[in-house]
Amino acid sequence: MVNILLCINMIILLICICIYLIALKSKKAPRLFALYLGAFILFIESHIILAITTSFNFGTSEWFFNGEFDYNTKTEVITSINLFIIGMILGSVFIASTITYKSSSYDVTFENKSIARFSWLLLVSILPFVVVYLIKLIAFISSNGFYSLYINGNKISGGYILDLFFLTLYSLLISLKNKKKILFIILCVACVYLFIGTRLEFMFKVFPVLIYYILISKNIHKYFRLKNILAISILFWGLIFSMQYSVSARDNIEMGSNIITTFLKQQGVSVNVIGIAIKDKNNSLLSESVILSPLYDSAISLANSLVGVQSNGNSVEFAENSFSLSHKLSYLEDPSAYLAGYGVGGAAIAELYIVGGYLACLIGGMLTYIFISILEKIAKKSFFNFIFVMLITGKILYSPRGEFLSFMSADRMLILFLIFTFSYKFLLATSNKKMSFKNE
């Protein structure tokens, strides 16, 4: 029966892909959803694909929960995923009947000399601090190990500097006519994250670049030419190898003879998070409030940082008092591993299931598609809309493996974006007033 459900899942997924491609060709679907769909397949569908095409046993976990989920849990996991995909299909039908994405809307640039000058000035000002922070970060991880970053608040200060550095680079990427040098700098600095084993941060820094090029390409079909497909394929598998090697080196484990299978096994563990959440759904530590974790936990973290209170990191107190499903499940399954800095990870579908079962999964899929569609529609309204969408969409792309409302968290990058926006507009208004006064 489980194998039949897995095959049904593949059929529903293929229907979703076909409907999306038809709508995309008719200019009735957002381009950004292609990135989300790719992330969803990687993070959620990898184990299902392996189970159908290889001898891999679906529903087997080797991380925190060690063993195989029972039959009922497996069927609930697959059904939850299927309903989420059906929700995305319903969302695509709704958007196709209400919105049209005109080709001319993608032929918009935001080259702006004043924003570029402001960004360059800011970039040069913080560059020495960025270099110092990177040296401290590399030295800290080399001496203490990657997971020491998550033990009882053992973090090094200065993360805001690096986020601000990337924000100014994104600003320059959008506002400058010649973008190649900026793109090269972004990728080089992002690769530092691969070097130290923080694969997640690498993805978050590269996602906005992918989003940028998808949103500005008037003729998206050029990427489907043979030479471009080959180039993209080489780049894609090169990144897979780099990320896999990064994690293997970080955790001191063998990469395995089949790097693709190993990569898919590791990336697809989010489906096990759904299984663990379903298995533990009746535990008193879990409640509907987990869906609000991005709002509540990020607000508490921000308030603590403003008053100088250090984060507790992975601790019993945080697991019990926070809204984070990832922290709660990790603590429930293996307290010692959790307190040592490890975690089971997250999954948006797991949160939705805890909140409202199958119905929440269906509605969640629909809302995800609609929200991505709206973001793409408003992106071209202004420079600041565009960069905001770049940052927000990057968080949504990771939500299959993270939190459903991850885009609503008051994280450093969004806070810095607000400061960047208000600072620029204030300086612009001040300079305009001075010019007006001189003319009088």
Automatic annotation (TrEMBL):
<protein>
    <submittedName>
        <fullName>O antigen polymerase</fullName>
    </submittedName>
</protein>
<dbReference type="Pfam" id="PF14296">
    <property type="entry name" value="O-ag_pol_Wzy"/>
</dbReference>
<dbReference type="InterPro" id="IPR029468">
    <property type="entry name" value="O-ag_pol_Wzy"/>
</dbReference>
